[in-house]
Design a protein that fits this description.
With 1196 residues, the chain is of the alpha/beta class. Among the domains are: 141 residues, 3-Layer(aba) Sandwich (MutS, DNA mismatch repair protein, domain I); 172 residues, MutS, connector domain (Nucleotidyltransferase, domain 5, 2-Layer Sandwich), CATH 3.30.420.110; 196 residues, MutS, DNA mismatch repair protein, Chain A, domain 3 (Orthogonal Bundle); 182 residues, Rossmann fold (3-Layer(aba) Sandwich), CATH 3.40.50; 52 residues, no CATH class. The chain is 38% helix and 14% strand. It contains 39 helices and 30 strands. The strands form 7 sheets. A 7-stranded mixed sheet has the order 14-26-27-28-23-29-30, sandwiched between helices. A 6-stranded mixed sheet has the order 12-11-8-9-10-13, sandwiched between helices. Strand 27, helix 35 and strand 28 form a beta-alpha-beta unit. Helix 19 packs across helix 31. The N terminus is likely disordered. Belongs to the DNA mismatch repair MutS family.
Length: 1196
């Protein structure tokens, strides 16, 4: 924090030279008011081209400075509203009223420019204008170096840094235009709340309309040609009136938005405009013109400032008030960066942190003629590149991994024997979780429906998508729009930003990210020639996608810390390993069950289909983990059920053995709850341990570094404490029981031995001291570099002590002592005058004296001081880098720490399954059987999610395969429970193969390799796909990829077309699944003619959801939700119409027409039966049919 400082007294009016020199800090962002003889320094340089590196040192043009006066821009003043809380942004008020409100204390004849910044800030920070007793001044730092960059020979010294009030616009030149600030929030928990930026007041314009002027928006770019609307606060701001920012906007190369190569990230700023800007605003525009898609947090002193369109974003999204003047401008203190950056990133914005990377003294030393210190972009945060660093403070619960997806698309033509050439789509993908540094890189072909891409989007929580400009087809864009609707999207230039495979390899090698190249990448390269940059065709797109990802990470300045972890995995589509040439493999060999995007959605595995939330999903029902890394692994287990019987039984054995050990499970979970997110912490410690002398953050001038250092050490200590707790868990698990399950015994035996490593760090430094001071002071023997520096300091101090003893003996005076504390004046010999009255030693040099004493330096003391200063500098340098070396030392055992975290996550997941299995009523262990004759036998099964909320849930049996037939044709009334039974069956199978007990009396099955679901139908209007097309496309995927071991459920296939076409399509699909695929299938339909076709079929079981019909009113039906054998006589659709409260007249007309249709169909069916009987010459059947038809009119 900064110390409070009393604002300096106003200089006397008579002192004209001092008065002319005094100038507000804002004058370097806004030219001063137009006065006689006044001029503003400006640059005559032309607008610079795109910098080769956005992070290069930002300096101000140094030539062509000419005085240019600036006219006052036109501004629109809204009509004030008569209310006490109204904030007026351009009010006309008298100076006396301002003084009464505590917003101004200057005389009428004093210009606002003549008031020191500290005083202006203090008066702007008054908390309650109407009560002097409630006014609160803002703490002003004593550091003058913060603003010294703004001081030159023409400017007076600024009295304070940019602590708590942002720069104030002085363009108006009149105190009458001073803004009446809204009282700050009373909460003072952070410095942000103590600043004058309070919550924004009500404004005449709506938030949505005000936001139109902001050029940085989530998910979509602003239309530069749209009409100018005030950015906020009910007035048109200065940037709203610039044509080159709106209707005449061009990118930095001069291209218009209509140009196919237009780059919306950049902006051409007119050279004549820049010449009129102050050096500091020229510096801001130099950064902004290449980052128009980004909100700049521009550091000035201890404040981050937002200007122009960025200030509009701050007003709309962060509730930051504008500073006075027509230039949109707001800001907040450095310590509030975590809060405000996280807010914008969570809403889809990109945020760049622009830091001062030198002090005014450093600027003078490098001989720069610039009036402002250098600034550089030190980080660029987006939803996909947010690493949750120490600057972000509280890390929050990140139980779900968020991914940045880079996608490369290519269309190819394939031809197989006996088939025509077909167009297929090929993708290269790179997914990275920036919080853990894990990369998934892969390449795969896909169908024209992009089924594998849909599955990828369902498997991973993608928050940001990076693609090549003009590199995606319209169909793929539609999939990304609907499959990852909340993700922000970026386009990279082909070649220069989205690298090809060869350039990617060349860049990776030049940067030296890897000590040893990951196997996931080398498999696509020439293994015999390490220097080769050639990539095989089966990995060309994958490497290109990785190249685009690396470019994006470089832009965000996090490439080194993530890539150096070398955590690369090959992404393979779930169904790629299960592709077989034969449709009936005899044995199931794959490792995981394939769940495509449709199945994940239809079964509501991760989110419910009502509002897209986690509540009500299967994950919410089963996930009882207590650690964030455990939750991420549990989601992976849910999406990747096991296929191998031995692996499933091993997991079930562990769960079953933990069920009776409830007290132990509770004890272990209590310990796990105390652990931080160790997986995230490992990645952060690695980043902090990497030596990055060229990273701009290493040059950033941070004013809250002590708090940041405490955060680093706090996370480090919490990580060590968490791993110490893991040792306790292993000990408790070992001593608790004689475990018999292979999984638990293997867990104990393979847990890495961390005792020695933890003991080293326990002795390495004092944790309590480190947490208080923010520095790690290593214990003796732990850091050789620091120990050597400390030994040198101690040796020199010992020499000085010996010299003091020698002088006492020589002068025969024991009262001689050392005096002084300043660096160059220390160790002065303080000698009584009586001791040197007779004869003063010639080497004594008088430095100072006090009554009765003289103080001396000698040549020996000066030599020791010189050696001591050098040794202390070495000690301080070693101490400053101690934390990084400690982190790097910890990171050397990264593999062991990572393995321990994975083991803890596995235990957390097993205990979660044991709680669900043992504490839920009616759960039983499933029995898995390895056989080449697939079957499924469930007795009294219940849907886990629905049964947990419905007390009288009706259980049902499901029998498929074996002697009951592999297919069930399911009929029944609408709302009778058909869809619930279908989902229930798939869910129980998934739970069983996940290793969890299931809600049923018994459950026996052979493992499934894929679960296919075709449920419901909806018109994808925005994607240009109709109901029938969606149905048939999903069905085609099932028919093309299902095997004998698959489980397929289809609900009401063919309802998107006519009855006859729908029935015929459904019939064809049933025939294929029965005779070609032979998989376990549940087919729900209302086509009674389809069901009647399979009355006597050996492979088909007929069932229906039972109901009771009121004998007195056939339209009154009671659903029993119970599966019964046979065909349901009717669908009872009119009953649903009655429940839906359709008008009775409509229902009566529908009932009459339904009866008519039934009679026509019966007659048509009778005619068919007559023709068939005549063809086979069956006279007996004809007589029977005649008698039946003759009797019907009498009964109707």
């Amino acid at each position: 924090g900064s110390a409070k400082k009393t604002p300096p007294k106003k200089p006397a009016a008579a002192d004209s030279n001092s008065s002319k020199k005094q100038q507000s800090l804002l004058s370097f962002f806004s030219p001063p008011p137009k006065k006689t003889g006044a001029s503003v320094p400006s640059s005559g340089d032309k607008t610079s081209s795109t910098p080769s590196n956005d992070n290069a040192i930002i300096d101000t043009p140094k030539k062509g400075i000419t005085p240019v006066s600036k006219s006052t821009p036109t501004q629109v003043t809204p009509k004030p509203i008569a209310t006490k809380t109204q904030v007026e942004f351009t009010p006309k008020q008298s100076a006396k009223k301002l003084q009464d409100n505590g917003l101004d204390d200057s005389s009428a004849d004093d210009s606002d420019d003549d008031v020191p910044l500290a005083k202006k800030r203090k008066r702007l920070s008054q908390n309650t204008p109407t009560s002097a007793s409630k006014k609160k001044s803002i703490a002003i730092s004593d550091d003058e170096d913060d603003e010294a960059e703004w001081n030159d020979k023409d400017d007076v010294d600024m009295e304070s840094s940019d602590d708590d009030v942002s720069l104030v616009d002085e363009d108006s030149g009149s105190e009458d235009d001073t803004v009446k600030r809204r009282p700050a929030k009373k909460k003072a928990s952070t410095r942000a709340s103590s600043s004058s930026r309070g919550k924004k007041p009500p404004t005449p314009t709506t938030k949505s309309s005000a936001k139109k002027s902001a050029h940085v928006t989530p998910d979509k770019s602003s239309d530069p040609s749209s009409s100018v609307v005030g950015g906020g606060g009910g007035m048109v701001r200065l940037h709203d009136s610039w044509p080159w920012l709106h209707a005449d906007r061009r990118d930095i190369e001069g291209r218009k938005p209509s140009d196919p190569d237009y780059d919306s990230r950049t902006l051409r700023v007119p050279a004549e405009f820049l010449r009129k800007e102050t050096p500091a605003m020229q510096q801001w525009w130099q950064v902004k013109q290449t980052n128009m898609d980004t909100v700049l947090f521009f550091k000035v002193g201890k404040f981050y400032e937002l200007f122009h369109m960025d200030a509009d974003v701050g007003f709309n999204e962060l509730e930051l008030n504008y500073m006075k003047g027509d230039k949109a401008h707001s800001g907040f203190p450095e310590i509030a960066y975590a809060k405000f950056s996280a807010t914008l990133v969570s809403r889809g914005y990109r945020v760049a942190r622009v830091e001062q990377t030198e002090t005014p003294d450093m600027m003078k030393m490098r001989g720069s003629k610039s009036k402002v210190v250098s600034r550089e972009i030190c980080s660029l945060l987006t939803p996909g590149t947010n690493t949750i660093s120490f600057l972000d403070g509280s890390q929050g619960p990140f139980s779900e991994a968020s991914y940045l997806l880079t996608l490369k698309e290519q269309t190819a033509t394939t031809a197989s024997s006996g088939r025509k050439e077909q167009q297929v789509v090929e993708f290269g993908v790179c997914l990275v979780d920036c919080t853990t540094g894990v990369f998934h890189v892969g390449q795969f072909t896909d169908s024209l429906q992009r089924d594998r891409l849909r599955t990828l989007l369902a498997q991973f929580h993608v928050v940001e998508i990076v693609v090549e400009r003009h590199g995606l087809s319209l169909e793929t864009k539609a999939i990304l729009t609907h499959g990852a609707s909340g993700a922000i999207k970026s386009e990279l230039k082909a070649g220069t930003e989205m690298w090809d495979a060869t350039k990617t390899v060349r860049e990776l090698k030049a940067a030296g990210y890897f000590a040893v190249w990951p196997d996931a990448l080398t498999k696509w390269m020439d293994e015999n020639d390490p220097s080769s940059v050639v990539v095989h065709t089966n990995g060309f797109l994958a490497m290109s996608a990785l190249g685009g990802c690396v470019w994006n990470l470089r832009r965000s300045l996090i490439d080194q810390e993530l890539l150096s972890l070398s955590q690369f995995q090959t992404y393979t589509p779930p169904d790629a390993a299960s592709d077989v040439s034969s449709s009936k493999p005899t044995l199931l060999a794959q490792q995981y069950v394939v769940l495509d995007g449709h199945t994940i959605h239809n079964l509501e595995l991760l989110r419910n289909n009502y509002n897209g939330q986690r509540t009500g999903s299967l994950l919410a029902q089963l996930d009882q983990t207590v650690t964030n890394f455990g939750k991420r692994l549990f989601e992976e287990w849910l999406l990747k059920p096991l296929c191998g019987v031995n692996a499933i039984n091993a997991r079930l054995d562990a769960v079953e053995e933990l069920v009776p050990q409830h007290s132990l499970v509770v004890e272990l979970r209590t310990v796990l709850k105390t652990m931080p997110d160790l997986e995230h912490h490992l990645a952060r410690i690695h980043a902090l341990g990497v030596l990055r002398p060229d990273h701009p953050d290493s040059r950033a001038i941070m004013y809250e570094s002590s708090q940041y250092n405490v955060r680093k050490i706090k996370n480090f200590v919490a990580t060590l404490t968490g791993f110490q707790a893991s040792v306790q868990i292993v000990h408790s698990l070992t001593q608790a029981n004689q475990w018999t399950s292979d999984m638990l015994t293997r867990w104990i035996s393979t847990f890495p031995d961390l005792k020695d490593k933890l003991a080293y760090f326990d002795k390495a430094f004092d944790k309590n001291v480190a947490l208080k001071t923010g520095t790690i002071q290593p214990q003796e023997g732990m850091d050789p570099e620091y120990d050597d520096a400390v030994a040198d300091v101690s040796a020199i101090e010992a020499d000085l002590d010996e010299y003091l003893d020698a002088q006492r003996a020589a002068l025969k005076c024991k009262s001689i002592v050392y005096w002084g504390s300043k660096k160059d004046d220390r160790f002065q010999l303080e000698v009584p005058e009586s001791a040197v009255a007779a004869k003063q030693p010639p080497e004594y040099e008088l430095k100072s004296k006090k009554k009765g004493y003289k103080r001396f330096h000698t040549k020996f003391i000066r030599d020791c001081l010189q050696r001591l200063a050098a040794a202390e500098e070495r000690r301080e340098a070693a101490l400053k880098d101690t934390a990084r070396r400690m982190f790097a030392n910890f990171d050397k055992s990264y593999a062991d720490w990572k393995r321990a975290v994975h083991q803890l996550a596995v235990l957390d997941c097993l205990m979660s399954l044991s709680l669900v299995s043992g504490q839920s009523e009616g759960y039983t262990r499933p029995e898995l059987v390895q056989t080449d004759q697939p079957f499924l036998d469930i007795q009294q099964g219940r849907h886990p999610a629905i049964a947990s909320t419905v007390s009288d849930f009706i259980p049902n049996d499901t029998h498929l395969g074996s002697d009951r037939g592999s297919m069930m044709l399911l009929s029944g009334p609408n709302m009778g429970g058909k869809s619930t039974l279908l989902r229930q069956t798939c869910t129980l199978v998934l739970m069983a193969q996940m290793g969890c007990f299931v809600p049923a009396e018994s459950c026996r099955l052979s493992p499934v390799d894929r679960i296919f679901t075709r449920l419901g139908a909806s018109d994808r209007i925005l994607a240009g796909q109709s109901t029938l097309f969606v149905e048939l496309a999903e069905t085609a995927t099932i028919l093309n990829h299902a095997t004998q071991h698959s489980l397929v459920i289809l609900d009401e296939l063919g309802r998107g077309t006519s009855t006859f076409d729908g029935t015929s399509i459904a019939y064809g699909v049933v025939e294929h699944l029965l005779n070609t695929t032979g998989c376990r299938t549940m087919f729900a339909t209302h086509y009674h003619s389809l069901v009647e076709e399979y009355v006597d079929h050996a492979k088909v079981t007929l069932g229906h959801m039972d109901c009771m019909v009121d004998p007195t009113n056939e339209h009154k039906v009671v659903f029993l939700y119970k599966l019964a054998d046979g065909i349901c006589p009717k669908s009872y659709g009119l009953n649903v119409a009655k429940l839906a409260d359709l008008p009775q007249q409509v229902i009566d007309v529908a009932a009459a027409k339904s009866l008519q249709f039934e009679q026509v169909l019966q007659e048509s069916h009778a005619a068919v039966q007559v023709r068939q009987a005549v063809a086979r010459k069956d006279v007996g059947f004809l007589r029977q049919l005649w008698a039946q038809l003759a009797a019907e009119p009498a009964t109707s």
